[in-house]
Design brief:
It is a single chain. The chain has 299 residues and is of the alpha/beta class. It has two domains: 72 residues; 213 residues, no CATH class. It has three helices and 24 strands. The strands form four sheets. A seven-stranded parallel beta sheet has the order 7-4-23-21-19-16-13, with no helix packed on it. A six-stranded parallel beta barrel has the order 3-6-9-5-24-22. The protein has a three-stranded parallel beta sheet with strand order 11-14-17, with no helix packed on it. Strand 1 and strand 2 form a beta hairpin. The longest helix is centred in the first third of the chain and has 23 residues.
Length: 299
């Protein structure tokens, strides 16, 4: 006759004790059962436990996931360009700013070293202090080198910062893209990075800049830059105009009804045709002309 003892918790193992063992004290029988159960449990634990190799792979996978997550969060593109006090202006020019009304400008407008008379079409409104003027077309103030102190010092500093920013942006090295699409960027989707062009750049169709709110773009353009009428620069993925810099050695032109995004650092002029718009800043070293143009400073 045999007695059978079954393991608990559904473990499929049976301990069979010869009948002769039943003459022994129950404590000895239970001890043998416990020893057998312990041995089986240890065997199961070994079988179910992950191997050292599996643990290493799991640890490596987790580390890889963390690395990918961290990499994804890092900003892409070149270092930002410090505009200094030039960044206080929606439009800043050395040789004048003219408008064919009504233009809509959100932000300050400034000229230096030229006098206030170089700001035309604004129907300027004086103020008792004389350090700035206002206009129905400008949500902000208009400053000129000929205004009462301390404005001349303010404007000299702003123009100096504009020139420093231009030199910085134009002098960046190790571009990510050289002569990308030979400068015909219409229809392109542009990733963050430093772009360098030895000639002119044009947008005959819409162009998209795609990146995160922290990503940056710098476009170094040795020639002119222009966008065709009714075409647009579009932003995707959270990209922000304040992180996009167009540093242009030649003139820039914006066709009627066109829309642009970013900071313009121009060595010469910027001409906006009827109904054109820009979300950004226009900082140039000669003159700006507006024709019922909307200029909005980026946040």
């Amino acid at each position: 006759m045999y007695q059978h003892f079954h393991l608990p918790h559904g473990l499929h193992s049976t301990i069979t004790v010869p009948a002769t063992d039943t003459s022994k004290p129950l404590s000895q029988i239970m001890l043998r059962c416990h020893q057998h159960i312990l041995a089986v449990c240890l065997m199961v634990a070994v079988l179910l436990a992950p191997s050292a190799e599996a643990k290493a792979k799991a640890t490596s996978a987790k580390a890889g996931q963390k690395s990918i997550s961290i990499l994804t969060l890092l900003p892409q593109g070149p270092g930002t360009v410090n505009l200094g006090t030039a960044g206080d202006f929606a439009i800043l020019a050395k040789a004048g700013v003219s408008t064919v009304p009504p233009s809509v400008i959100t932000g300050d407008v400034g000229v230096s070293p030229i006098a206030q008379t170089a700001m035309t079409g604004f129907s300027l409104i004086g103020n008792p202090v004389g350090t700035y003027t206002t206009s129905a077309q400008v949500t902000g103030r208009l400053y000129a080198a000929s205004d009462i102190a301390p404005t001349p010092v303010k404007m000299t500093a702003a123009v100096g910062d504009m020139e420093i920013a231009y030199t910085d942006a134009a002098g960046r090295v190790n571009p990510d893209y050289v002569e990308h699409m030979t400068g015909a960027l219409g229809g392109a989707t542009l990733s963050p990075g430093l772009y360098k062009f030895g000639t002119s750049v044009g947008f005959a169709t819409d162009c998209t800049l795609s990146g995160s709110p922290d990503d940056t773009w710098i476009f170094q353009i040795a020639g002119d830059m222009s966008i065709t009428a009714n075409k647009k620069i579009l932003l995707a993925g959270g990209a922000l105009a304040r992180n996009i810099v167009w540093v242009v050695a030649g003139k820039t032109e914006y066709g009627a009804g066109s829309h642009f995004e970013g900071i313009i650092l121009g060595a010469t002029s910027a001409e906006f045709f009827t109904g054109s718009t820009i979300n950004g800043r226009v900082l140039v070293q000669t003159a700006v002309t507006l024709q019922q143009t909307t200029v909005t400073s980026p946040a």
